[in-house]
Amino acid sequence: MAAPNKDFLNLNLQGSIPRLQDYSVSPTLGFMRENPLHKLPEYFDPWWKIVTRIPELVEDGTLRDEVTKMPFLDYRKLDGEPEWRLGHVVLSAITQTYVWVAGEKHIPLSLPKNLAVPYWEISKLLGITPSCCHFNSILENWMLVDPDGLMVVDNFKPIVNFVGGDDQVWFFMVNAQTEMDCGPALCGIVEAQQAVKGLDVNAYIAALEKVEKAVRRMKVSLSRMRERCRPWVFYNVIRPYFAGWDSPAFKAKGWKGLIYEGVSPDPLCYGGGSAAQSVTLPSLDAGLGIIHQPEEKNACNNFQKQMLPQHREFVKALADGPSIRHFATFSKNSRALRVYNACLQAVTDFRSYHIQIVTEYVIIPSHQKDINQNFSHQAALGTGGTGFMTFLKNMRSSITNAFCRIDEGTEIN
């Protein structure tokens, strides 16, 4: 028997195909949590009374006083992962506002023990960092305004608010809608890998058509950001509260991070919340075989530390599965090639549109004269600690190398 050719070996037919339910992924909501808890048990009311009054406490300048008076609560009274997740949402919001409420010049050297210890311990239980991230601000932080209403952005609201009023609510929930739109794309990626394993061209085409349609829908949802979230408010009011402990404000003081009292005598350094911590695009990249350059790949690996472990594992499982990219050329079928390239184009278009939004909401406001002087150090640096425009453009450029050509010998359909 002749040895299999290189194209056949590249398909990786021995690779296993992930099941969404094994990785806390929803076929309809993607990485968004289905039916997240909306309230912690009564024992945790001291946390709840602060987190539900954040805008008010920020406005009257009493937030740090209220946190200082907060009793030391036993995190072990949280009963299982749903309560750990909501606890993480609550303590992240309190932490971010505690650190940034008085502006860059007055950031604290440490978090008080009554906040730092439970935050640290719950983070260990979940397998993520004790810091603001996409998980605790978006994926776990949503509910329906009308429980019997539609699953659409106009019927979403955050469980926990930061600052920024209606603009902040809309910013959070447009992100949530975009995440949910990716659910069918993730299904399509898995179905495409199943088609590769079965060498089924028609099933492969149908699956990738589903992927392209979902990614196009993500772009439409993202375009709604402009409806109710104003760039000036986002840049000057909302965005500063997402910054991490590696920000210019900490570096200006010569600090290497934030001390978590009762956890470590040395400062701990974590980046802030960033859309780059979303699992959606890394999953699409992994499934479609998009390879990034070492610098961007290293940055992505760092962002993955702020994802839930099961979501990180899902990205790896897609990357290790049967090759959707190589099947596009192995099939010698022009429809298969075209639908694969159409998926790449949809991802490219989404990334390009995201760059437009970032330009409008961050780059342009950072050069205006009326910026919030309490946060003047942040400028155009990413809240996750990156020089993000270069990063975003390089991530988009990587897709170019994945496009497939229709070569001689390809069946034209």
Automatic annotation (TrEMBL):
GO terms for biological process: 'de novo' NAD+ biosynthetic process from L-tryptophan; L-tryptophan catabolic process to kynurenine. It comes from the Eukaryota. The keyword Hydrolase does not apply. Pfam families: IDO. Gene3D superfamilies: 1.20.58.480. GO terms for molecular function: heme binding; indoleamine 2,3-dioxygenase activity; L-tryptophan 2,3-dioxygenase activity; metal ion binding. Keywords: Heme, Iron, Metal-binding. Heme b binds at H354. Belongs to the indoleamine 2,3-dioxygenase family. This is Indoleamine 2,3-dioxygenase 2-like. The gene is LOC110980378.
